[in-house]
Amino acid sequence: MVSRSLGRLGLGHVVYVSGLSCKITKENCIEMLWHEKDEKATFVNLSCLPAFLTSSCIHLISTLSQISKQRKPAINICRVKLDEIDQCHNINTRLAHSLCGHFIDEESSSSYGANLHCSFCRVSCNSNTEVVRTFHITITLADEETKLYSWCTGQSASAILQISPDEFCDLPEDDQLMYPSSLENEWFLVILANSGSRNLGSGHETDDTCWEITRALKI
To answer: Under the phi-then-psi rule, with left for phi > 0, alpha for psi from -120 to 50, and beta for the rest, what region is 196?
Structure first.
């Protein structure tokens, strides 16, 4: 299988696999069909494609209230600003597997000796070349109608914070605490996915967060 713009694959993301289709059977069940002309298939994570934000001809902007009751996976593009900045203290940095973008469970990795372990890929990672520091943030988004509680990591979080994880970690602790206030009234185009998952990893459980920002662009 050939990966194209895979990004960080997660629950609620919309993906395209070449040659894959489905139909309703006589028993009213969904049947998956896969016909591939070549030896390899193409896999595209549509929820992480930058083109949906940078090309106005292919995106339709929705309001937060329009998508708030959504249950099925979809590519939701919204124009939002960061809200409740004074309550935004959940800027964390964690280690992630550079190949898949998923967090490394540092506690579980202790059982694998010196190597860090990616539970998503189920492999040990070379800490020098395959492990990167990334953001994990929870933040309130708002538009003219309503608010939405969301989370993001990786490139999306860096685009919103407008700083890299390493640069953020180099800031003095007081500057880290004050940093969110510099983002007040900033507007973004974002792609939102209903992750449907309340568990974001060891030590990061929440009862409210289910919307993931898969891409962000400052406007």
So the answer is: left
